[in-house]
C-alpha cells in the first residue's frame, strides 16, 4: 500500500515516485495550489498539488487535495523534489512530494479537538486515539516500548526465563486491596487479581527455573493518587542460589546498559549506597532525590534545654526528632510563601513549621528574623547557624515531631524547596537504599507490620535471635532509587519454612491463618527450597522518567482516571442482573458506608 | 554461590575445583562410599564422597553425604575427575565430582511423590513446584519460553510495537463469557477481563502505531474443555495500511523463521492455501490436519434415487450432504470397533454411521459386506467404489445429514481413523484457510452470527451489496492451521463507520445497542481510521505442539484444572462478607439454576 514512510522521505529520493499513507496534519489551499502536511508515526512530509504543465492531467489531484480536511486518512503517490523554502524544523524539510494521485482512504469528521489545543485531559482520554496520534504522545509511548525491549533483550541474553504467572489467583482473606472475580463454576467463591507475582516467582525458584523474569501486570484496588493506576506493570525478577550482591550487581548493570541504550546516558558505576537510617537522617526519605544538594540537620542535641517547649519536648522524647533544613537564599521568601510551605509540610504530618531568616549572619541575634528567635539563647542560636551552615540570605525551617513524622514532612519540604529554588541538578541520580528495618510497629493495629513484605529474609538467620530483637531487626531488603523515585524494590527471601513461620508469628499471623493464606508456600519451603531473592521494577514510572513526563498516564496506552474510569470505553459500567446471577452475586442494595 | 551448573560439568574441567548448587536426585550409600546425583536445570552430575587417602580430612563430607535425601538442596564443592564407568545417558556421564565439601542448604521432608512415579495430575498440580523440577517439565516449559523469545525478537526487529492494553476493561452487556470485576469506587458497576484485545488493537492502529504486537493474556469464563484454560495467551498483532497479503506473508514468514530457530525444522514455503469451502468439502473441517491423507468423497449425486432413504433424503435436501470416507485396510475392523467409531461420530452429531467392507473388490456386490449393500443397486455400488477408490481390504464409512453436521462428524471420524490406522505422517503441515462465510445463521437465536467476529471486513466494500447478499457473503478472515489445530486467526477489519454499522445491523445489534457496547469504536472509525488488519496466535497451543504434548497444561507454569481450580493455591475460595461489602456485592443465597 505504500513504498515509504512519510517521515523518512529525504533528499536521496529526489526524482523518485513514492507512495505514502498517513493523516492530513494541515491542509492549505492557496488558490488552486494545495499543500498537505502528511503525517505518519515517522514524521511529516509536505505534499503539493499544483496546476503545473509538467504534471499534466492533475485536475483530479487538485480537486482531491482541495477537499482534504484535518486527519483525513490518505494515500498519496507523487514525485519527490527539492523544496524551495526549506523547513529546518522537520526531518523531511528539504523535500516535498508533488502528488500525482491522492486517494481518500477515510474521511475524518470535524475533530472534537485539534492537536495544538489543550482541551484538558478528560477530552484527551475520551478521544485517546486522536491524542496518541500526536508526535509528543508517540514519542513518549515509544520510549516506553524501547525501554521494555531493551530490558527483555538484556534478560534473554543472560538466561532469564520469561514465565507467565496467573492473573486469576487466590483471594487472600483480608486482602483489602484485592480485586475480586466471582467464579462461575464455584458459587460463592472468588479469584483475586494479583498485587504482584511474588509467591509465584518464589515457587518458580523452588521449581528449578533458576533465573526468572516477567513483565507482569499487577493490580491494586485502592483510591488512586495521581501517580497510581489500578493496573500497573512491573519488571518482576527472581534468582535462585544468590545473595544480595549477586542480585544488586546484576540489575544495577542492567539499568546502566538499558539507560545507555535507550537514553544515551551513563549512570554512576557503582550506584551510591545508603542505609535506610542514613537516608532518613540526611534526606527525611527512604527514596532520597540526590539531585538536590540540601540535607536535613539534626539539632535535637542543641535544643534539649530550649525554652521553646516544642523543640525541648521532642528533643528529649525517646522517639523524637528536631531537625533543621537550610533554604539557600530563602530569606527573601514572603510570609505568604512561608505559609504555603507550612501548608505543604502539614500535608505530611507537620503540626507547625518554625522558621528563621538569616538577614545578616554577621550580626548574630540581631541579624535573624524569626518568631522563635526569642526562645533560643545566643549559644543555641549560634550553634544552630553553625550546624546548618546558614549564611546571610538563607532561611532555616525547623521540624519537631516523632522521628518518622519529622522526617516525612521535612523530607517533603526538602523536595519542594529544591524544585522551587531551582536546586535540582540535571541528570540522573540512582542509588541503593539498604538495611531497612524488618518490622514497623503499627500503632493502630497494635502489632508489627512488615516494612517490605512478609517473605523478606531478616539479616539474622536464627529464629530465636529474630524473636528476641524484632524491634531493631534489619531485613535483607533493598530499594533502587532514581531521582527521588523508588523504581525498584527487592529482597533476599526467606527460604526455610521455620523462619517463615516465625516471621508470620511476629506479624501476628497465627499458624492456622498462615496455613489458610500461605499454606502452599510453607509446604513448598519444606521440599528443598533453594536460597533465593529478587526485585521488581516499576515500568510505568521508569518509562515516565525516561520520557520526561510527570504523569505515568503519558506512557500507558489506555490509562484510567484518578476515579478509576476509562473515559474512552466507559468502564466500569452497570451489568444486567441476569449476568450477575450467572456468577452468583448481586449488587448490594445499600452501598457500603 | 556456585562456579558451574551441574549439567554443564564436562571433561574440560577435569582436575579443577568446582562449586555446584542443586537438588539430590538420587543418593546411594554403599558402605561409606556415597554417590549423589546432583541436579539443576541444566542436568545431572554424579558427586562422590569417598574415604580415599588422597582426599584427607573428608570424614565430615562422608557424614554429610550419608544423610542426604531426595530433593535436599545442596551446595557441593569438589574436584572434577574422569569417571570410571561412563554413563552415556547423561551429558556429564564421563566425569564425576569428588566432594571436598557438602553443605545442606535446605533439608527436604519426605516427598509426596517421586519423579519416576505417576501420581496422577491432581497431585502433580498440587505440588507443582516438585513436578516442574523434573527434566521433562523443564524441557517443555523452556520450549515455550524459547518460542515466545523467538517471536518477540522477530517482531522487535521489524518495528512492531509491543503495547500493553488494559486487563480491566468495559463489561459488554450480554458478554456471556466475561469475567466480571466489581468496581470499588463505583457501586453497582463492573469491569470485565478482556476476551481479547481486539478493539484496543484496532484503536491503536487508528492512534498511529502502525505495527502492534502483544503477548496478551485473554480470559474466557466458560466450562473448560481439556484443552482450554480460563486465562490463555495470545500473540496479538495488528497492521495499519495493509491488505490480506501483507499480513499473511509477514506472519507466515515469522512462523517459518521461528520454527527454524526453535525446532530446527523447515515449514513449507509458501504455506498451502485452501478456501473454507474446500476444507469442509475435502476434510470436513475448517482446520484440516493435512498430515492425514484421507479425504471425504461426496456421493450425494450417486444416491439421489437410492432405496436407502436416509441417503436419498439428504442427497435431495437443499442443505444436505452424503459423504463417504475410505478407511484403508478397515475391512479387518470388528463389529465392536465399528460401533466405537459410530459412537465417536455420534458425539459430533451423527445419528448413525453406515459402513461397507470391501472384502474382495473383484467380486463386486458379492465381495462387499455391509448392512446397507442391499439398498444400493449394482451401478450405485460400483460408482461408490470407484469414486472412493476403495480396494480389497478397505472399509467405507458413510455420513448423511445437513452439510454442516455431516462434515463435522465425518471430519472427526477422519481424524480418529487417521490416528488409529497409523496414517498420520511425520512432520508439520501448516496451511491457510481463507474465504470464510461472513455470517452463519443461528437457528436457535433466529439471526445471523459472525463466523469470525463482528469487526471482520466483508469481501465486498459496499454496504448495499453486503445487505443484499448476506447469506453468501464471504469475509476477509483467514486462519492459520497447523497439524489440525487452528493456531492463528485474523482478518482485515472494517475501517469505515458506516460499514461497521451495517454489519452490526445484520447481526441484529441495533443502533442503540451498538452505541452502548461499541460506541467508542464507531466514534473512532469516524476520524480517519486507516485500513487495517491483523491476526492472533494461540501461544499455549503452539508451545504444546512444539513441546510434543497433547496438553497445554504442560506448557503453563500454573494451570487450572477443568473445574477451574488452582490445586496448588486453592483458588477460587470463599471471601469474608466484609470484603464483598467493600466492593458492593453479595453472594446470592440461591445459586443460579
From TrEMBL, chains A, B:
Catalytic activity reported: tRNA(Asp) + L-aspartate + ATP = L-aspartyl-tRNA(Asp) + AMP + diphosphate
**What are the EC numbers?**
6.1.1.12
Q: Which InterPro entries match?
A: Aa-tRNA-synt_II, aa-tRNA-synth_II, aa-tRNA-synth_II/BPL/LPL, Asp-tRNA-ligase_1, Asp-tRNA-ligase_1_N, Asp/Asn-tRNA-synth_IIb, AspRS_core, GAD-like_sf
**Record key words, sorted:** Aminoacyl-tRNA synthetase, ATP-binding, Cytoplasm, Ligase, Nucleotide-binding, Protein biosynthesis
Supply the Pfam families for this chain: GAD (PF02938), tRNA-synt_2 (PF00152), tRNA_anti-codon (PF01336)
- Cite the binding residues for L-aspartate: 174, 220, 452, 493
Region called Aspartate, residue ranges: 198-201
Give the SUPFAM superfamilies listed for this entry.
Class II aaRS and biotin synthetases, GAD domain-like, Nucleic acid-binding proteins
This protein's GO cellular component annotations are: cytoplasm
The listed locations are:
Cytoplasm
CDD domains named in the record: AspRS_core, EcAspRS_like_N
* Swiss-Prot/TrEMBL GO biological process terms: aspartyl-tRNA aminoacylation
* Molecular function (Gene Ontology), one example: ATP binding
Q: Partners and quaternary state?
A: Homodimer.
Function statement = Catalyzes the attachment of L-aspartate to tRNA(Asp) in a two-step reaction: L-aspartate is first activated by ATP to form Asp-AMP and then transferred to the acceptor end of tRNA(Asp).
Report the sequence similarity comment from the record. Belongs to the class-II aminoacyl-tRNA synthetase family. Type 1 subfamily.
- Protein known as: Aspartate--tRNA ligase
Name the species this protein comes from. Answer: Luteimonas gilva
Starting at the broadest rank, the lineage of the source organism is: Bacteria, Pseudomonadati, Pseudomonadota, Gammaproteobacteria, Lysobacterales
Amino acid at each position: 500500500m505504500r513504498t515509504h514512510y512519510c517521515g523518512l522521505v529525504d533528499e536521496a529520493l529526489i526524482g523518485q515516485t513514492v507512495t505514502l499513507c498517513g493523516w492530513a496534519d494541515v491542509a492549505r489551499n492557496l488558490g488552486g495550489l494545495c499543500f498537505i502536511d502528511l503525517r505518519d508515526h515517522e514524521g511529516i512530509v509536505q505534499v503539493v498539488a499544483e496546476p503545473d504543465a509538467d504534471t499534466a492531467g492533475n485536475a483530479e489531484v487538485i480537486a482531491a487535495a482541495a477537499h482534504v480536511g484535518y486527519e483525513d486518512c490518505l494515500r498519496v503517490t507523487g514525485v519527490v523534489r527539492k523544496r524551495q523554502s526549506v523547513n529546518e524544523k522537520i526531518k523531511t524539510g528539504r523535500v516535498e512530494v508533488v502528488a500525482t494521485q491522492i486517494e481518500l482512504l477515510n474521511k475524518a469528521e470535524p475533530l472534537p479537538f485539534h492537536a495544538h489545543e489543550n482541551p484538558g485531559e478528560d477530552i484527551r482520554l475520551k478521544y485517546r486515539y486522536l491524542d496518541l496520534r500526536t508526535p509528543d504522545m508517540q514519542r513518549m509511548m515509544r520510549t516506553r516500548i524501547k525501554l521494555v525491549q531493551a530490558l527483555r533483550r538484556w534478560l534473554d541474553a543472560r538466561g532469564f526465563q520469561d514465565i507467565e504467572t496467573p492473573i486469576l489467583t487466590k483471594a487472600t482473606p483480608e486482602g483489602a486491596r484485592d480485586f475480586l472475580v466471582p467464579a462461575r463454576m464455584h458459587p460463592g467463591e472468588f479469584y483475586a487479581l494479583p498485587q504482584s507475582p511474588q509467591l509465584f516467582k518464589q515457587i518458580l525458584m523452588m521449581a528449578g527455573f533458576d533465573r526468572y523474569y516477567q513483565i507482569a501486570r499487577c493490580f491494586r484496588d485502592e483510591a488512586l493518587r495521581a501517580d497510581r493506576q489500578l493496573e500497573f506493570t512491573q519488571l518482576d525478577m527472581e534468582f535462585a542460589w544468590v545473595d544480595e550482591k549477586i542480585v544488586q550487581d546484576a540489575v544495577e548493570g542492567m539499568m546502566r546498559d538499558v539507560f545507555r541504550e535507550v537514553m544515551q546516558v551513563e549512570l554512576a558505576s557503582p550506584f551510591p549506597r545508603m542505609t535506610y537510617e542514613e537516608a532518613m537522617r540526611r534526606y527525611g526519605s527512604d527514596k532520597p532525590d540526590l539531585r538536590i544538594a540540601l540535607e536535613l540537620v539534626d539539632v535535637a542535641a542543641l535544643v534539649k534545654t530550649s525554652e521553646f517547649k516544642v523543640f525541648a519536648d521532642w528533643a528529649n522524647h525517646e522517639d523524637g526528632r528536631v531537625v533543621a533544613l537550610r533554604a539557600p537564599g530563602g530569606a527573601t521568601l514572603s510570609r505568604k510563601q512561608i505559609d504555603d510551605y507550612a501548608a505543604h509540610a502539614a500535608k505530611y504530618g507537620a503540626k507547625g513549621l518554625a522558621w528563621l531568616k538569616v538577614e545578616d549572619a554577621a550580626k548574630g541575634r540581631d541579624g535573624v528574623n524569626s518568631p522563635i528567635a526569642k526562645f533560643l539563647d545566643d549559644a543555641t542560636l549560634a550553634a544552630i547557624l553553625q550546624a546548618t551552615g546558614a549564611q546571610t540570605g538563607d532561611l532555616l525551617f525547623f521540624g519537631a515531631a516523632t522521628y518518622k513524622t519529622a522526617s516525612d514532612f521535612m523530607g517533603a519540604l526538602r523536595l519542594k524547596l529544591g524544585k522551587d529554588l531551582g536546586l535540582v541538578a540535571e541528570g540522573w541520580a540512582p542509588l541503593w537504599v539498604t538495611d531497612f528495618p524488618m518490622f514497623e510497629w503499627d500503632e493502630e493495629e497494635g502489632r508489627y507490620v512488615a516494612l517490605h513484605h512478609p517473605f523478606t529474609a531478616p539479616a539474622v538467620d536464627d529464629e530465636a535471635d529474630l524473636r528476641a530483637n524484632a524491634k531493631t531487626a534489619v531485613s535483607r531488603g533493598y530499594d533502587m532509587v532514581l531521582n527521588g523515585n523508588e523504581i525498584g524494590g527487592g529482597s533476599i527471601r526467606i527460604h526455610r519454612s521455620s523462619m517463615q513461620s516465625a516471621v508470620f508469628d511476629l506479624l501476628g499471623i497465627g499458624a492456622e491463618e498462615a496455613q489458610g493464606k500461605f499454606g502452599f508456600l510453607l509446604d513448598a519451603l519444606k521440599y528443598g527450597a533453594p536460597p533465593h531473592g529478587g526485585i521488581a521494577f516499576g515500568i510505568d514510572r521508569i518509562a515516565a522518567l525516561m520520557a520526561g513526563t510527570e504523569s505515568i498516564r503519558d506512557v500507558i496506552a489506555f490509562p484510567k482516571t484518578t476515579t478509576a474510569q476509562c473515559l474512552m470505553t466507559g468502564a466500569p459500567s452497570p451489568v444486567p442482573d441476569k449476568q450477575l446471577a450467572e456468577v452468583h452475586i448481586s449488587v448490594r442494595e445499600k452501598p457500603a458506608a
